[in-house]
Amino acid sequence: MRRSDREIKDFDEIVDVLRRADVIRLGLHDSKAPYVVPLSFGFEVKDGKIIIYVHGAKEGYKHDLLARDNHVCVEADIFHGYKKYQDGVTACYESVIGYGDAAVIEGDEAERGMDLLLEHCGFPGLEYDKAVHEIMRCYKIVLSEVTGKRRFVS
Predict the structure, then answer these.
(1) What is the rounded (10 degree) CA torsion for 35, 145, 71, 135?
(2) 4-149, superfamily in CATH?
(3) Which of 29, 46, 60, 139 could bond to 69 as cystine, CB 3.0-4.6 Å?
(4) Counting Cβ atoms within 10 Å, is residue 37 exposed (0-12), middle (13-18) or buried (19+)?
(5) What is the residue-averaged pLDDT of the chain?
(6) Half-sphere exposure at residue 64, Cβ-oriented, CA atoms within 13 angstroms
């Protein structure tokens, strides 16, 4: 990281940024250019690793790209606004970037992922029709690398 003075070094603080972020952006490999898609998500920490859960319809461009190359980049941020700084304007933010491999999950693991997603979206314990798993695909992404960064956040 070029600006190490802005790096979030504490793992628990990185997890806190992720907890407060509304969406992640999933970066995928495409032959033309990177493909980035915003997604709702859930997550948990196990054995010192962040595990992210996402879902979507069983078909689509995202799923086609993941089938070809499941190595992904995950980005989350919280934008706190702009402020005048010295002779210009700068952004106040917190962000997390991580890398991992996306794996399709099913059954109990997919239900756990959906429960965590619903919890993160503000609906903990929401009962939903489990038949929805027949028409969607769930992914689990274990982040093998993760960094955090912030600027001008109180």
Answers:
(1) -80
(2) Electron Transport, Fmn-binding Protein; Chain A (2.30.110.10)
(3) 29
(4) middle
(5) 93
(6) 6
If 0-12 CB within 10 Å is exposed, 13-18 middle and 19+ buried, where does residue 78 land? middle
Region 81-106: mean pLDDT is 92
Q: Locate 144 and state its tokens.
A: 């093998």
Of 141, 109, 147, nearest in space to 39 by CA: 141
* Confidence (pTM): 0.91
Nearest CA among 96, 44, 103 for reference residue 75: 96
Closest CA to 148 of 36, 3, 47, 31: 3
**What are the extents of the domains in the chain?**
4-149
Taking only the tens place, the pLDDT of each residue in 103-116 is 999 999 999 999 99
Q: Please report, to the nearest 10 degrees, the dihedral formed by the alpha carbons of residues 1, 13, 86, 79 taken in order.
A: 100
Beta-bridge partners for 74:
26, 98
- To which residue do tokens 């997919």 refer? 110
Return the closest-CA partner of residue 18 out of 76, 101, 72: 76
